[in-house]
Amino acid sequence: MRFDIMTLFPDLVDTVLSESIIGRAREAGIIDVRVHNIRDYTQNKHRRVDDTPYGGGRGMLMAAPPIYNCYASILSERPDEIITEAPEKPSGAYVVYMSPRGTKFDQSVAERLAKHDRLFILCGHYEGVDQRVIDEIVDEEISIGDFVLTGGEIPACIVTDAVARLIDGVLPLPECHENESFSDGLLEYPQYTRPPVFRGREVPEVLISGHHANIDKWRHEQSLEITKERRPDLLDED
Question: Which of 86, 129, 181, 205 is a Cys-bridge partner for 72, taking CB atoms 3.0 to 4.6 Å apart?
């Protein structure tokens, strides 16, 4: 799967997505993550990407042309040139804009996005972006929660991480993500490793019993209990 991330802060995004499991998957060629600097697609000598909003208001707004030119150049497979007319978007490609007003991101959204062959992620900044470029290229706006950040870069990294780890080969086995929190609508059960006793706290006996049916039963009960206590809304959705 290919990710094309459009941002004003490419070093921030690239650094985060070059570490750990995602970084290794990139190095192995299992996923292709490309980070593009929107500022490279301006057509003014000062490389300005923002302006004051029509109708007044505080702050600056990211202008439509540099964003569109960036998108058009990526689609044209000529990222080193400024292209002002985008070719037709290929089948399997999907464009999302990280926005507080978007669809709330969760595991089901990650699973849906992972079905696409190619994901474009637009990172806003300042007071957001000109609505016209959203209307022109974006398929869906996505929010990582009910709060506002200074830019879309950290949300873009979160979405990329959550989606990428669902791609075959990124994790060693499918079970690595199939039994995690939210994968079955419940929060994950507690996990333990060596030593068997830590500061007087022992590993639950059932986990060292070797009885797999009892272990599975215990884990499911723990997931239900934790979900009921911390996220009862997940049970209500059923």
Answer: 86
Give yes or no for a contact between 100 and 144, defined as CB atoms under 8 angstroms apart. Answer: no
Per-residue pLDDT of the chain (238 residues; tens, 9 = 90+): 999 999 999 999 999 999 999 999 999 999 999 999 999 999 988 889 999 999 998 899 999 999 999 999 999 999 999 999 999 999 999 999 999 999 999 999 999 999 999 999 999 998 899 999 999 999 999 999 999 999 999 999 999 999 999 999 999 876 565 555 566 789 999 999 999 999 999 999 999 999 999 999 999 999 999 999 999 999 986 5
Token pair for 205: 């006996």
CA distance 53 to 141: 20
Share of the chain residues as helix, strand and coil, in percent rounded to the nearest 5: 40, 20, 40
Question: CA quadruple 152, 157, 158, 162: dihedral positive or negative?
Answer: positive
Cβ-contact 5, 14 below 8 angstroms = no
Question: DSSP character for 190?
Answer: P
Structure tokens of 32?
């292709």
